[in-house]
Amino acid sequence: MKRTRAETDFSHRHLSRRAALLGGAQLLFIGGLAARMRYLQVEQADEFRLLAEENRINVRLIPPSRGEVFDRNGVRLAQNAPSYRIVIIKEDAGDVDASLEQLSRIIALDDSAIARIKDEMRRSAPFLPVTVASDVTWEEISRVSVNAPALPGITPEVGLSRVYPQGSDFAHVLGYVGPVSDYDLSKITDPEPVLMIPRFQIGKVGVETKLEPLMRGRAGAKRVEVNATGRVMRELDRQEGTAGSDIQLTVDAALQGYVQARLTGESASAVIIDCDNGDLVACASAPTFDPNLFVRGISQKDYGALTGNKYRPLASKTVQGLYPPGSTFKMITAMAALEAGLIGPDETAYCPGHLEVSGRRFHCWKRAGHGWVDLQDSLKKSCDVYYYDLAIKVGIEKITAMANRFGLGVKHDVPMSAVASGLMPTMEWKQIYQGQSWRVGDTVNASIGQGFLLASPLQLAVMTARIATGRAVSPRLIKSIDGVEEPDRGGESLGMNENNLRKMRRAMFAVVNDRRGTAYGSRVIEEEMRMAGKTGTSQVRNITAAERRAGVIRNEDLPWERRDHALFVNFAPYDTPKYAVAVIVEHGGGGSKAAAPIARDITLQALYGGTPPLEAYPAKDRERIGTLQQQLRSIQPQAAISGRDQA
Question: What residue range is the signal peptide (predicted)?
C-alpha cells in the first residue's frame, strides 16, 4: 500500500529529530571525554607522573658510618670494616616464599634462618631491607648477582661492620655493638628511621652505648630505579649521611695491653689515673672477653661459657665491682681525725692485739698486737687498734664526709656501663635501709674499711690521686671528640691542711720503703721512681671466736670464694706524683702478697712508658722479674706492644 505524501514528510521529520538528538549526545560524550583527557593529561600530568615515578623509583636509607675510637696516641680501638651481606625488600619481592626458596638454592639458608627472616619482615616496614645473610663471601655475592633476575627483591650489598682490633684488651671499656632489639627500641621515645632497619648495629654496653648518639651519625638516602621484578637498574641520586663522631680515649693501648696481660690468671682489676689531669691511662678487668663475638650475635655456647665462669668475665670490675676497701681506708679515718684536730702526728696509742668496745672485742690482724704506735707506724704496720681508737673519737659522720671529699661513695662521671656509687654509710642511712640504730661497733668496723663500706677500684684510684695532689682530681676517659679536646679534670684544691696531707704521704711512703712496712717487698729501687702506697685485706667471711682460739684458717686453706680480697693503692713518683694506681685481686688473700706486686709492676710500666729496666727492682727479684717480663711480652697482643709505633 502506497504511503501518502503527508505520511512520508512526517517520517522524515521524525528521523531528523532523532538523528539530531543522537548526534548531540555523541558530541556531548566526545566533548566530555576530550575534557577529561585534557584534565588528566594536562592539569593532572604532574601528579600522575609522580605516581609513575613512585612505581619505578625507590628511596632507600643509607646507614651512616659509625664513628671510630682511638687511644690517646692514635691507635685504633674500634673501627669499621667492609662486610658483604644479602638483603630482601618485602614490597619488591612479591612472593617472599618463592624468592627465599630460590635463594636457598644459591646460598646456604636453613629453616631457622628463613624463619628469622620472615619474623623480621613481619615486624618491619615493607620498604625496609631485611638482612638475609651477613658476612657472605665474594663468591656467594657473585652467584646472587648473576641470578638477580630470578630473585625479585633480593639484593647483594656492601656495608660496614664493627671490628675491635685490640681484641679483649678494651672489652670492658669500649663494650660492643649489636643488632637493634625490641628492648632497645622500647627505651627510645621517637626512634630514628635508621634504627628500624633490622640488624642495624648500635652500642650495647661501655663507651659504645654511652656515646651512641654521637657515634651513630645520621642516615643518608638514595633513589634507585627498579624494573617490574624489583631489580635495581640504576642509582639516580644519592644524599650521603653524616658520619658519627670519632672518639679519642685517654687510655694508652700499649699500657692497657700490659696491664691486662699482668692480670692474667686472676679475677682482678686495676686502674691507673694521671694525677695531673685525671686521665684514665689504663682501666682493666680480668678475666676479659672478645667483644668481636658480640657484634653479629654471639652463639649460645660462647655466651654460656662467659656467664657460667665464676670469675665473671663480663663484669667491668673497675667501675661496677664493689668491695670493702679494707686497710686502704685507714688514710680516710686518719685524715678525718687530723682535720678535726683530734690527734697530732706524734700521739700514740697502745695496741695489745684487740680493743674492747661495748662488751665486744675487736681484733687487730696481728694477734700479739703492735704495742705503742703513732700515725706513721700505725699505717706502716697497718695496725687496726690505732684506727679503732681514732674512729671512736671522730665518729662516723666526719669519717663519711671525709670519704666523700676524697671521691668515695661518689658516682664518677665516666662513660662506662653500670658505674657504681659505692657506699659510705651514715647513721641516717642505717636507720632508713637497715631499720636499726647506728652502734659504736659499726664505726669501729668502718674505721678499717669493713662493715657496710663498699668502694670500687676507680674510686680508690681517685682517692689516692687526691691524697697525692691535694686536689679534687676526677677521672676523665674521653680525651677528645672529633679532635676537640675535652676539659681536663685536674680539679681545684680540696682545701685540706697541707701539713696533714704531707704526714699522710710520708706514712704511705713508709709502708713501701721502710723495712717494717707491709709493702716493703714491692718497693722500687730507682730513686726517682719510688712510690708511696697502702696495702689492704678485706674479709668476706666472719671469723668466729672458736676459730680465733684454735687459730685463724689461712687463706690458702680456704675455698677460693671464702678467701679475703687483696688490695693495694699507690702513687708515684713520691716527690712529684704522676700516676695513682689501685689494684684489687678478688679472693687473693693478703694485699702485700697478691696486689702490691701487680701494682708495682704496672706503675713502673706507666712511668717508663714501656718495659722498665731490671735495675728498678730489688736485686733479689730481678731474675724472676726478667722471666715474668718475657712471659708478658708473649701474652700481650702485638698491636698493643707496638701501639706507640702505630700512632
Answer: none
Q: Which three cell numbers stand for residue 115?
A: 624463619
- 201: enclosing H helix or E strand: strand 201-205
Are 521 and 625 spatial neighbours (Cβ–Cβ below 8 Å)?
A: no
- Write out pLDDT tens, residues 79-138: 998 888 888 888 777 788 888 888 888 888 888 888 888 888 887 777 777 888 877 778
> Given 3-state DSSP classes, what are the helix, strand and coil percentages for the chain, each rounded to the nearest 5?
45, 20, 35
CATH superfamily assigned to domain 81-157: Penicillin-binding protein 2a (Domain 2) (3.90.1310.10)
Q: What's the pLDDT at 344?
A: 78
Q: How many CB atoms lie within 10 A of CB 74?
A: 12
* Inter-residue contact 88 to 100 (CB < 8 Å): yes
Q: Look up residue 121 and give its three cell numbers.
A: 619482615
Beta bridge partner(s), residue 242: 218
Q: How many CA atoms lie within 13 A of 613 on its CB side?
A: 5
**Given the C-alpha cell 654509710, which residue does it identify?**
425
DSSP designation for 95: S
Output the DSSP codes for 442-477.
Answer: HHHHHHTT-TT-BB-HHHHHHHHHHHHHSB----B-
Pick the CATH number of 267-272+322-477+491-634 from 3.30.200.20, 3.40.710.10, 3.40.30.10, 3.40.190.10: 3.40.710.10
In 3D space, the residue among 406, 386, 557 whose CA is nearest the CA of residue 467 turns out to be: 406
Find all residues with CB under 8 Å of 125, minimum gap 6, and list them.
Answer: 196
Residue 556: exposed, middle, or buried by beta-carbon count in 10 A (0-12, 13-18, 19+)?
Answer: exposed
Helix 384-394 with 396-405: angle, nearest 10 deg: 100
**Those residues with Cβ within 8 angstroms of residue 121's Cβ, 6 or more apart along the chain or in another chain:** 88, 90, 96, 130
Q: Where in the chain is the domain with CATH 3.90.1310.10?
A: 81-157
What is the DSSP-derived secondary structure letter of residue 619? G
What was the pLDDT predicted at 328?
98
Three-state secondary structure call for residue 356: strand
Which ranges of the chain have pLDDT less than 50?
Answer: 50-51, 638-647
Task: Give the DSSP per-residue string, 124-167.
Answer: S-TTSEEEEEES--HHHHHHHHHTGGGSTTEEEEEEEEEE-TTG
Q: How many CB atoms lie within 10 A of CB 549?
A: 8
Of residues 296, 332, 601, the one with CA closest to residue 460: 332
- Please list the alpha-helical segments (H only) found in 217-366: 253-262, 300-307, 317-320, 330-339
Angle between helices 622-635 and 253-262 (to 10 degrees): 110
Task: Compute CA distances 132 → 81, 177, 488, 646, whole Å.
Answer: 19, 19, 46, 37
Residue corresponding to grid cell 558530541? 27
φ and ψ at 505, to 5 degrees?
-65, -40
Q: Is the peptide bond between 573 and the residue preceding it cis, with omega within 30 degrees of 0? A: yes
Strands 247-249 and 69-70: parallel
Distances (CA, A) of 16 to 21, 22, 28, 141, 557: 9, 10, 18, 76, 126
Task: Report the distance separating Cα 464 and Cα 217, nearest Å.
Answer: 38
DSSP letter, residue 279? B
Name the residue among 569, 477, 487 with its Cα closest to residue 282: 477
Catalytic residues: 327
In angstroms, the CA 447 to CA 389 distance is: 9
